[in-house]
Amino acid sequence: MAETARLVGIDEFVKGLAGLPGIAPATVNPFLATHRVRPETLQPYTFFSAASYTRNLIFKNDLCELIAICWEIGQASRIHNHREQQCWMAVPIGKLKNQNYRVTDRDPAKKTCRLTASRSSLITPTSPLEVDQDEPVHQVLNLAEWRERAVSLHLYSRPFSTCEVYSLEKGTYCDVPLYYTSEYGKLSAGEAATLSR
Q1: Long-range CB contacts (< 8 A, 24+ apart) of 8-12?
Q2: CB–CB of 161/151 below 8 Å?
Q3: What is the Cα–Cα distance from 10 to 8, expressed in whole angstroms?
Q4: For residues 44 and 58, is the Cβ–Cβ distance under 8 A?
Q5: For the whole model, what pTM was predicted?
Q6: Could you tell me the residue ranges of all domains in the chain?
Q7: pLDDT digits over 142-167, tens only?
Q8: Angle at 156 between CA 138 and CA 143, to 5 degrees
Q9: How many CA atoms does the CB half-sphere of 38 hold within 13 Å?
């Protein structure tokens, strides 16, 4: 019989993650299935922007990082990869669509490729998602028709500071640096003017 999930504060969630014997599917998937974060405890890390989703660092060590991503209504990520690192997503607030893509005809010299949309799934408070290592290129969307904000927790193993972003229309891809909107609840320089709670 499956263990019932319980609601925990974000501090307890981070402590539990840090105490896992390793950051891998065998440890993280059962942990996410039995630990859901209380939405109100994410308040120090929830900054929204009309211009783009925001990336808010909660925890980081040599093995992993945990980020809260805040999505206004209708916002979506670009199609991207995770530098061959593992990724899990949980959504304590709202819901998100995950759309996977297959990459074919990749030409590193020309930075061109072809993308084909494949499997999609819904990420909700009761349904976390492990990014498919066989098909790691994906897009995350907070669909406008849902008419609600969303906050997702992204666990990466190991941390990475750049990713590849893909253009479906142009058939190209490029390297993009990643930035934090806030770190440990404190806004990064120059961010305050564009943000809301």
Answers
A1: 8/35, 8/36, 8/37, 8/38, 9/37, 9/38, 9/41, 10/37, 10/38, 10/41, 10/42, 10/45, 10/58, 11/41
A2: no
A3: 6
A4: no
A5: 0.94
A6: 6-181
A7: 999 999 999 999 999 988 899 999 99
A8: 40
A9: 10
Yes or no: say if 31 and 20 are a contact pair by the CB < 8 Å rule. yes
Homologous superfamily of 6-181:
Jelly Rolls (2.60.120.10)
pLDDT band at 1 (very low <50, low <70, confident <90, very high): very low
Q: What angle do CA 187, 192, 193 make, to 5 degrees?
A: 165
Quick one: how far is CA 90 from the chain centroid?
A: 8
d(CA 116, CA 41): 38
Q: If 0-12 CB within 10 Å is exposed, 13-18 middle and 19+ buried, where does residue 195 land? A: middle
Q: For the CA atoms of the chain, what is the radius of gyration?
A: 17
* Residue whose structure tokens are 């945990």: 66
* Secondary structure of residue 17 in the 3-state scheme: helix
State which amino acid sits at residue 73: I
